[in-house]
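ARCHIVE CARD
SHELF: 3
SLOT: left
DATA:
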Amino acid sequence: MESTKQAVVLERAATANVVRHFEEIYRRRLFAVLGYSSMFLFAVEELGYDRASAQRRVNAMELSMAVPEVLTFIDEKSICLQTAADIQTFLNKERGARRAYSAEAKASLVRDCLNLPTREVQRRLAAL
């Protein structure tokens, strides 16, 4: 059982590390250098992620670029990849509806979702 728990800890650290790598690739536009029009396509076609997994990581990357503490929260198990992706999906929809959140409001929204189950986060986001 302990080895399974340790594997989960390593998996979370690896997930946060992958998101960090995604940030660097995005900032340097390396996906474009390789001929991809988006990080999503790079993740699917170059890295072999399925579409849903790629989208979660790209969304988490976008959120972590706006709220850098997100990666620490993932490392600490305060927030999971799905929650980070759900928050960014919500923020994208809000921006599309011309209700963009400030940097402080984004950080506050993330903090409000810490240590909550994914379904509770989804419920709260739907109520906003």
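SLOT: right
DATA:
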Amino acid sequence: MNRGRQALRSSRAIRPWIAVAGASLTALTILACGGGAEATPQIIVQTVVVEKPVAQTVVVEKPVAQTVVVEKQVEKVMVVTATPVQPPTSTAVPAAKPAPPSKQKAGEIIWAVNTFGSAGGGFNAKALCCSSNAMSISETLFKTTKQADVSPYLAESWSLDGDAKSVTVKLRQGVQFHKGFGAMTADDVVWSYNDSNPSTSVKFGSGIPSITDSGGSWTALLGTNPLEKIDPYTVKITFTNFDPLWPIWHFGSDGLQAGVLSKKAFDQKGADWNTDNVVATGPFEVTTFVRQDRVVAEAVTQHWRKVPQPKKITQILVPDETVRQAMMLAGEADIATMDLGKIPAMQRNGMTAVSNGNANIYSIWFTGNLWETTHPTTGVKLDLTTYAADQPWIGNPHTPNDANNPQGMDDMEQARLVRWALAMAVDRDLINQRVVSGLGWVAYNPYFDWNLKEWNGKWKVPYDPKKAGEFLDKAGYPKKADGIRFTIPLFGFEYPRGVPPAIVDAVAGMWTEVGVKVDVFHYDYSIYRPSLVGKTSVIPYIDWDATGTYSNHPWDWPRGNQLSALSRGGKSHSLELPQATQALIEAGKEPDREKRIAINNKFADFLYDSQVGVATIAAGRFLVYNPNKIASWQMEPGIRQPFNTPENIVLK
């Protein structure tokens, strides 16, 4: 038995205690905000559907307090409405002893984190990521709330044109930037989002090529179209490929991590200063940022929507989880990021676990499968660099016949059999038990969680190492004298997060058992990422961060932008598949929810048949806090980040 797998089997399991309650959000259709689902152990999406001819302009009289819909007849669309339910705080493990008293001053919180990236400094093109919005330092045009899928935030109202080519957004007036940089206007909004899109950042943003969070999603939505200023408080957004999720995923508080920042601060202070500072509009303002050490955020005493009760939150970078645990148990930290498997022990020591209902689907993506030949919108011929050498897991539809194809089998089928073999070699139940102590669940599709009611059992991938070996033999890769069929590289990050690297190590051991030698790489993501942007990677890797790769994303949401040539110029899975492009465009244009579900069912069929991504497990993400310091923390439903709204923290 492989030693890595043996170690997995011999580790002591902890019985699951979390019923992960996803606050599922139903999809937005072209002209409406909508819905959600009741939080239950199985994530179920329920919607109320009403058909009526409208084109909506939504006006909010008070900050996220009341929505008045003004309607005018233009064409028939489908409006989806529902209300997501806030997920409960998990309390399933009783405390064996009380939590310690906090050592912090009144009104001050210490938060031990495993990573905070550039939350305390940076601008959108230079990866202001990935918790500035979640920490309520920066804000966005829209916000996901428990009242509705999306509510106006820095936007006050919006109106989509009849053919969904563009949207006009009216901005809230009087919103003040931090550090005395004045009131937000359309100039700031236009500059901020143009600086996010890799296709516009150089000409219309900071002048720097954008390496923003999930840049491929921006290029897929907007292409080279910049946001435009109509007047001091009105902006126009022009779509290249309409996506009904635009206010949630692209311009929402818990989607892509671009925020509205001060153009004046950038113009006056320059790129270097703005790399180490962030001038935004949230209820918390960064007062100290020491990269790779700490972020100090203090409450804004006169904020446009809410003044937080905590006066100061200090996030301290503590990569070692045992140290974070010790800090919590000693009262030296009040909040801590914690791997899922460690949550029960912390609860037994009196801590409270909290989540926004978000869970990741962790999948291995077989990069280098570039099957599209021209760009879907421009028609420009694509530069394909991943076929210089034949790789067993990469199918070549452009020159499908090569020297090592078995008789009667082209390169696409050969590679498909290899990917299927590797998928069947993965023992998902074992990974769930040993990596997250049984607190997650198995996953069979990278973009669709099996707990959703639309799931079809035909998409289940069996664990069958014997058949995996047969598939590899059939594909022309028999075991050699040393027992090895071929070698595959596998990238697993060097994050101070236990789950993704541990999954990669487990998968590597399982693939080794069927005769595939695995070279595992754990290094900084910033080194690997350029190959995803440039579409040059041939090294499979683990990822969990795209629309659909979160278990509570409703079935009808358009998916596939990171599998499409539409993402050229931004981060993607380094796969370009015409089937993904077709599904993304068709679902984005379709106003009928049931028809979007049918489109995505077809896409799920393709993902099952091709196995371009091998799903492993899904797992929720939790924080723990000391109940002697924090009385409650009611988060809004989450669709991406593991937490949000620290301004909702109520102190003891």
